Amino acid sequence: MSRPATGDQFDDDDYPAYTVGNAAEMLGTTPAFLRALGEARLIEPLRSEGGHRRYSRYQLRIAARARELVDEGTQIEAACRIIILEDQLEEAKRINEELRTADPPD
């Protein structure tokens, strides 16, 4: 039996709120596309108690970026690698900014 959603879950970008059908419809793609992203290890959906794939808003944003790249002609494996590298670059920039703005040691 599933738990009722709480207010915190509605605000949680990582809460797996969307079924594969919902996610595919929102992205204008197919469930097979989402499964391919999972096989490429770009996104790994959580599973409901019944074993069904469930996606978060964060995962849907990643999938939307992948779809954008694929629609531009990029192979799905290359699109996944590009997204991973983009994410790593953003994380490195964030860490660099934190280090630059940190108080210097005495």
UniProtKB/TrEMBL annotation:
Database matches in InterPro entries: DNA-bd_dom_put_sf (IPR009061), MerR-type_HTH_dom (IPR000551)
Coiled coil segments of this chain: none
MF GO annotations: DNA binding
One Pfam family recorded for the sequence: MerR_1
Domain HTH merR-type intervals: 17-85
Alphabetically ordered keywords of this record: DNA-binding
Protein name: DNA-binding transcriptional MerR regulator
Naturally occurring in which organism (per UniProt): Nocardiopsis terrae
